[in-house]
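ok so I'm stuck.
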Amino acid sequence: MQRYLNYILKNTIKVEQEETLDGRHSRNQRAYTTWEQVAGYFDGDGSLKVHTGVYALPIGVSWTDQDSEQIEHVKEFLAREGVIGRMGETRQRGQTYYELHVAQSGKALVALKRMLALVDKKESQVRAGIDYLENRITGEQFIEKLNEAVRLGKRSSPIRNLKMPYTKEEGVRLARANARLGKGRALTAGQIRAMKEDRDSLGLTFRELSNIYGVAPSTAQRSLAKYL
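replied:
not stuck anymore, here's the structure
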């Protein structure tokens, strides 16, 4: 956290010169200009977001803060670097929080690789995310790395038990082989979010999604209609 604060205090306030009709003057404008700043922010208030699919784990990267302007500045920096994030907001204990989320389709892997050498507290989590996305470890091994971070107090989430003894690439192949979970299940909000991640990051069709989540293709399409 101290590393994050030092970077923000030193670098986040950028003084820019502007030309106006009345002459030349300066103003203070908050802006993120380096990966060091963004990685420091991630180390303090960022997180790996993991959706539990049936055969693969869509992974995203997120930054959360009560200051929407600060989150917007991170989004602008990432966009300049070719990384696409989406803004959202949630309510927790009567407070509004703003979240910037980068999905796999938005080049989460690029963001993780750019931050790897720059993070401290979350280094093992970032490395594990990269290793999973690049098919060097299985889903089970990746989740165990996150569990280790939880035990060490470096990640706030429950311990997860997962049976997924294959890499991301192997999981995608299994998903495309139309493995079935069952029929007639109602989709929860969490399953719909995970289904969207599967479609965005794995490129699955509605029929493939229906086979994975045990619903009709029309149900899968209808569930994701607001995102299309």
